[in-house]
User: Fold MBOAT family protein from Winogradskyella alexanderae.
Amino acid sequence: MLFNSIEFLIFFPIVFILYWFFKSSHKKQNILLLISSYVFYGWWDYRFLSLIIFSSFLDFYVGKKIESSPKKEEKKKWLIVSLCSNLGLLGVFKYYNFFADSFADTMSFIGWEVNDLTLNIILPVGISFYTFQTLSYSIDIYREKINATKNMVSFFTFVSLFPQLVAGPIERASNLIPQIEQNRKLNISLIKTGFLQIFIGLFRKVAIADNLGVYVDSIYANSDIHNATTLLIATIFYAFQIYFDFSGYSDIAIGSAKLLGFKFNRNFNLPYFSRTLTEFWRRWHMSLSFWLRDYLYISLGGNRKGIVLTYRNLMLTMLLGGLWHGSSWNFVIWGGIHGLFLSIEKYIFSSLKISTFNVLGYIYTFLVVLIAWIFFRAQDFDTASSIISKIFVLDFGSLFIGNLNQFVNGILLLIIGLMIDLKLFNAKIALEDYGDKYNIVRLSLIISVVILMLCLFYSTTENFIYFQF
Assistant:
């Protein structure tokens, strides 16, 4: 079920009304949330409910065993069970065919032909997100940062809570489980900030991202026939398409959670207003960035074992972070580009004893991110290489516009989106808190304008980009 679908427009109000009907009992609310979350996820394909239920059972049991085990070695064995089981499922469904094809290509290159080793399987939606969420629970118990929950319904709800189930934010057990296990109240602040964030999220996704995507898709589908000017504009459009698409999803998720009495962590903080790539990753997909830092980079040794190993750990973290996004070498290269420039920045900051760049850093950061997005968006390595070669050869010519109305709409909506972000940046206030600035009348007026814009610029595109990851 998609946030921008008619089904969700019917589903959420029903859940909302029933949920607050049981406001005197958070246990009944949790049962309703669990059933509703399984309906939400099973709407796409009910067969994959077995995977999320299995992961929930596994880590609920493993969490208790880790906590109760008297010896460190025994705790580690149970943690390994969780790691191998969860990553094994993720590996089979997301990466098996990728590595099987890569192995076959390698053998073919050296003259050996192998039979087709791929399996006829599809990628379950959201598996990358809920796998990381359950793993963080087991790891935190092992590190003695949290206690294992004794309530199975609470834990299953933590894993499957529908606002963040499919594409995050990746919530930590330390933040979400305590909220699940206590009574929740819906106050005027949550209503105001939640509704505003939901509708801004819908505007970012349905109006801005989807309209930009029409142009991007048409250019990248036939990149070989376009010149550098057109490819560069399409890539710039894509940089904002994926930002508004994914931040829009996060806004709807966080806003919906507020209407259920939950406070999720922030997932985007105006990432294109960054003067360094390091700052960019503190602002972009923050729940994943901090997960990779806390559970991968630090586990590899972080910056505690000398400068060489620090660069190694940084590169490995970004390479694996790229691979997390998809089973393609393009994503690995995308992660490698970020890892390389993050390492260069760390060296420069260490040598010059500075923490950031001047105003030109905004341009540098955006250009690095822009180049990396080409590998993220292109269908394969050859297409990405061709696009980059055309742009850097500086073969600029007249811009291909295509449908003039769609192109103008895309430009207009992008400007509006950037103006909203600029206002938030200058005001130094998060969108998550912005609804509190207005009374109910003014807030209703703002939301009415947003709804009008949604009606005027509605796009037929439905899927969120990060659903494929």
